[in-house]
Write a structure and sequence with these properties.
The chain is an all-alpha fold and 151 residues long. The chain has seven helices and no strands.
Amino acid sequence: MNAHELLTALGIYAGTFVVAAISSILPFVAIDVFLVGVALVAPPWALPAVVALAAAGQVVGKLPIYFASRGVAALNGPHRARLERVRRWIARWAHAPRTLLFASAVLGIPPFSIVATAAGVLGIGTRAFAVLVFTGRGLRFAALVAVVGLR
């Protein structure tokens, strides 16, 4: 199914949410490219909702990965001591993991998939994770849609 068929079947809003959720799991599905296409054909009044739904889809798609990484961090095993050293090292900068997660959500550097996965291991709370990812991705997508609107 291509993007046009998906949007025809689900509509612009549900289609955006689904593509965003899928793209947060499968890196070869590019939400940025999809949003450029949507921004080119959608009426301007629909774009704020599209941006919000894309950001929400990214959160929903990343949450299972986040919870899995939290579960791995709770396991005892040969890498436990190394993980604890990394946590103590990062704890010296109280907000560093959250700042890194937010910056990565907005900029994509360092790769957002890696940082979002590490967020669970680094002990970022679920609520903070969801808020930071939603806000960061929302800013990224709003900027992208705004640039497309300048055409």
